[in-house]
Amino acid sequence: MNNQEFSLSQKYKDYFPIGAAVNRKTITSHQELLLRHFNSITLESEMKFELLHPAENTYTFSTADMIIDIAKKHNMKVRGHTLVWHRQTSEWVFLDRNGELVSREVLLERIEEHINRVMSRYKNDVYSWDVVNEAIAEGTDYLRDSKWLTIIGKDYVEKIFTYAHRADPKAQLFYNDYDVVIPEKRDKIIRLIRELKQKEVPVHGIGLQGHWNIYFPSIDLIKEAFDKYAELGLPLQITELDVSMYEFHDKSKMDKPSPEMYEKQTIFYEKIFALFREYRDIITGVTVWGIADDKTWLDNFPVRDRKNWPLLFDTSHQPKEAFHKIMDF
Ligand code: XIL
């Protein structure tokens, strides 16, 4: 492999941008790998509500600005993440001066102001937004129980997309979620997107997080999901890919994965990237949720202080076997 080929995003330039989630630390500590292999970024938390807007009249843009400036300097795309979510959202937005829940009107006004402020600030820098994140419930409910739903009501998702489109008509607006290949949840996501489209709500794509593990899901299940989502006629992006070494409900810890586990991970990456390439007509981006195994959110989720090794580069920033396999086509 010659030197020029030894770049993931270069290798995939005719397929889709290759992104990585970065944060205020890794944008420096992992910059060499980032600039060499990726041509898109997502800010891991720095654009979430509570980090940008901690109090009603206080916006804190400096960290996001710093990261986005680096991306711009290196011609990287930026995905905005995220405008409305049930987590990492400042509590003040839901409450009045007496600590009571605000009315639907007040919350709509507040979120519209937030969206206008944030999206207009980044309108030349951020090309796509995860507008609403994880609004579908696990289990049998349709929409997830959240303050957004309780206070605004069932039409909150369409309201938010409408505000986002108004704030930046050129931005690509995504609905983003996890467990997207599990049939029950998948079908509810499809129902939501159908309903939005029927009402002519501006939704432009579906973000499939891709927090997977070496045991689940099967390639067949992922493929089946791509086919179903494709029927909606919207582009898909893999927005938060990582491949955990643990089964989801496994709470045990290990010092290091066995060779068999690494092998499973390699095969998993190899197969999903082959599948992504096969679906290049509808997949418009693939983003990995982190850069190298020394820094991953999975070190603290779903079990605190448990090491994980879910990415394409190892703890010393060296390419793993999985990396070599996805470069080899
Ligand atoms: C995670 C970040 O990686 C962590 O650093 C943070 O503590 C919690 O959020 N789905 C999402 C992401 O949409 O925003 C989450 O990111 C991971 C799950």
SSE blueprint and pairings:
Layout: H1 8-11, E1 18-22, H2 26-29, H3 31-37, E2 40-43, H4 49-52, H5 62-73, E3 77-84, H6 104-121, E4 128-133, H7 147-152, H8 156-167, E5 172-177, H9 183-198, E6 205-208, E7 211-213, H10 219-230, E8 236-244, H11 259-278, E9 283-288, H12 321-326
Parallel strand pairs: 1-2, 1-9, 2-3, 3-4, 4-5, 5-6, 6-8, 7-8, 8-9
Helix pairs in contact: 6-8
This protein binds (3S,4R)-3-hydroxy-2-oxopiperidin-4-yl beta-D-xylopyranoside.
(3S,4R)-3-hydroxy-2-oxopiperidin-4-yl beta-D-xylopyranoside is lined by residues 44-45, 133, 209, 240, 297.
Task: Describe this entry's structure for a reader.
The protein has 329 residues and is an alpha/beta fold. It has helices at residues 8-11, 26-29, 31-37, 49-52, 62-73, 104-121, 147-152, 156-167, 183-198, 219-230, 259-278, 321-326, and strands at residues 18-22, 40-43, 77-84, 128-133, 172-177, 205-208, 211-213, 236-244, 283-288. Helix 6 runs parallel beside helix 8 (156-167). The longest helix is centred in the last third of the chain and has 20 residues, at 259-278. The chain is globular, with a radius of gyration of 19 Å. The model has no long low-confidence stretch (mean pLDDT 97). The chain binds (3S,4R)-3-hydroxy-2-oxopiperidin-4-yl beta-D-xylopyranoside. Residues 44-45, 133, 209, 240, 297 line the site of (3S,4R)-3-hydroxy-2-oxopiperidin-4-yl beta-D-xylopyranoside. (3S,4R)-3-hydroxy-2-oxopiperidin-4-yl beta-D-xylopyranoside is lined by residues 44-45, 133, 209, 240, 297.
